């Protein structure tokens, strides 16, 4: 480029000299157009080279007047701007910023698993009495649990070791006492009360109250002449259905002093005191 510039400058000087000579000599026809073309080419070439050699000068500034032998020197046309360079390297990391403000509370997490069963607590205080219950149904009539008899002698007893037959009936509505045998027959199991009151006259009295074939109670009274005595006894016995109870004279001697007439009585009685609850249910 520099070499070309030098060559062109030499030509330019020669053309200038020739032009000057031509101008003074009234130019020849056919030479002037070639001179114009050369001057234009020199202008184009001289501008860039001039820019390189004098970079500090601003565009459009007045060029210094040519010196030396190349007094007709002219600046070239400025070249095109160069291409953009490659991007530079990344900068260094900045200093850490200030600590930010506390963030909002997070969302509520899912429900946890069921815990273990706790220890059983202490027993609580006694509660208030409850309301009374309903009135119970009407119970069975007492009639089915009735059993009673009251009987007496109508004649003197003369035969020992057999049931004494009391034929004077004061009460025997349930007919649990059999006047033909002198025995009470238990139809309702339970507790029974028995008693007897004997008028003793003319002979001693020994009587036993029998339950089935066993003498349970004994009563003995000695007779004194011309005196009327009384002998008595009572007992509670638990009887089952079918049990039999009666009175009879016991012993081998003559102790059948049981007496009764219009104004004297010997009596025997019994009744159910309590029936068995099991049987009633
Ligand atoms: Ca006596």
From TrEMBL:
PROSITE patterns: C1Q (PS50871)
Biased composition range(s): Basic and acidic residues: 89-104
Segments for region (Disordered): 78-139
Secreted is among the record's keywords: yes
Residues of the C1q domain: 142-279
Compartment list: Secreted
Keywords, ordered alphabetically: Collagen, Secreted, Signal
Gene Ontology CC terms: collagen trimer; extracellular region
Compositionally biased spans, kind Low complexity: 78-87
Matching Pfam families: C1q, Collagen
Superkingdom in the source lineage: Eukaryota
Name this protein carries in UniProt: Adiponectin isoform X1
Gene expressing this chain: Adipoq
């Amino acid at each position: 480029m520099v070499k070309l510039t030098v060559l062109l400058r030499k030509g330019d000087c020669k053309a200038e000299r020739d032009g000057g000579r031509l101008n003074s000599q009234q130019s020849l026809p056919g030479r002037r157009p070639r001179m114009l073309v050369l001057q234009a080419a020199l202008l184009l070439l001289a501008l860039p080279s001039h820019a390189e050699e004098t970079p500090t000068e601003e565009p459009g500034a007045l060029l210094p007047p040519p010196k030396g032998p190349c007094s007709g020197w002219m600046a070239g046309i400025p070249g095109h701007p160069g291409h953009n360079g490659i991007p530079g390297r990344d900068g260094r990391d900045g200093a850490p910023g200030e600590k930010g403000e506390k963030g909002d509370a997070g969302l509520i997490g899912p429900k946890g698993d069921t815990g273990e069963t706790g220890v059983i607590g202490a027993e609580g205080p006694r509660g208030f009495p409850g309301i009374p219950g309903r009135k119970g149904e009407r119970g069975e009539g007492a009639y089915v649990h009735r059993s009673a008899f009251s009987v007496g002698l109508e004649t003197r007893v003369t035969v020992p070791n057999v049931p004494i037959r009391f034929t004077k009936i004061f009460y025997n509505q349930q007919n649990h006492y059999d006047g033909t045998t002198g025995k009470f027959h238990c139809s309702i199991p339970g507790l029974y009360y028995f008693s007897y009151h004997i008028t003793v006259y003319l002979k001693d009295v020994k009587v036993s109250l029998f339950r089935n074939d066993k003498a349970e109670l004994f009563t003995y009274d000695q007779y004194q002449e011309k005196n009327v005595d009384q002998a008595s006894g009572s007992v509670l016995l638990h009887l089952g259905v079918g049990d039999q109870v009666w009175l009879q004279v016991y012993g081998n001697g003559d102790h059948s002093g049981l007496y009764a007439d219009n104004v004297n009585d010997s009596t025997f009685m019994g009744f159910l005191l309590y029936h068995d609850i099991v049987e009633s249910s």
